[in-house]
Design brief:
169 residues; mainly alpha; two-stranded antiparallel ribbon; 2 strands; elongated
Length: 169
């Protein structure tokens, strides 16, 4: 359980800094909406020469992806709190794991939109890379989301098996 407390601490710190992004992100989108020419929009090393609505759209999609990621961290934090109380095969744990997976999946899918939107017009060719600034982040979010979704299903099956074993005794 020592590793669980370390994981809870790391997720708590990550959630705190992620919440700072949620709190600061919305006013930044409003600033871009009001003063679009004053704020240069640099996305993964590409300085975009887009109109006001495109930049606001990209900012809103990135903000929504970050909010989905933060919500996933929040649910993971709640799940780890239940684990620390030694509650494993509860309906809440299964629900939280499933929702965590779905929120990470949504975050990954939303992150793909600005990547395609920015990389295609930048040099008029389709390219993929797996650098930290490329498609690695959305793919990681998708993989983690699928992992938590599968983990939720595994916990549901284990809960049913546990209930069946208790009935036969």
């Amino acid at each position: 359980m020592q590793r669980l407390s370390l994981l809870r601490s790391i997720i708590g710190i990550l959630f705190f800094f992620s919440m700072l992004g949620v709190i600061v992100g919305l006013p930044l989108i409003l600033i871009v909406l009001i003063f679009p020419t004053k704020v240069p929009f640099n996305f993964n090393g590409y300085l975009l020469n887009a109109d006001k609505m495109e930049i606001v759209f990209l900012s809103a999609v990135i903000y929504a992806a970050h909010c989905a990621f933060t919500y996933g961290l929040y649910l993971l934090k709640k799940t780890l709190a239940l684990f620390s109380k030694r509650i494993f095969f509860d309906q809440k744990v299964i629900f939280y794991l499933g929702r965590t997976g779905k929120s990470f999946l949504i975050s990954g899918l939303l992150w793909i939109v600005p990547l395609f939107f920015c990389y295609l017009p930048a040099d008029n060719r389709v390219k993929t890379n797996t650098d930290a600034d490329g498609f690695a982040i959305p793919i990681f979010h998708l993989a983690i989301g699928l992992f938590f979704t599968v983990l939720s299903e595994v916990f549901l099956m284990a809960k049913k098996m546990k209930e069946e074993n208790e009935l036969t005794i």
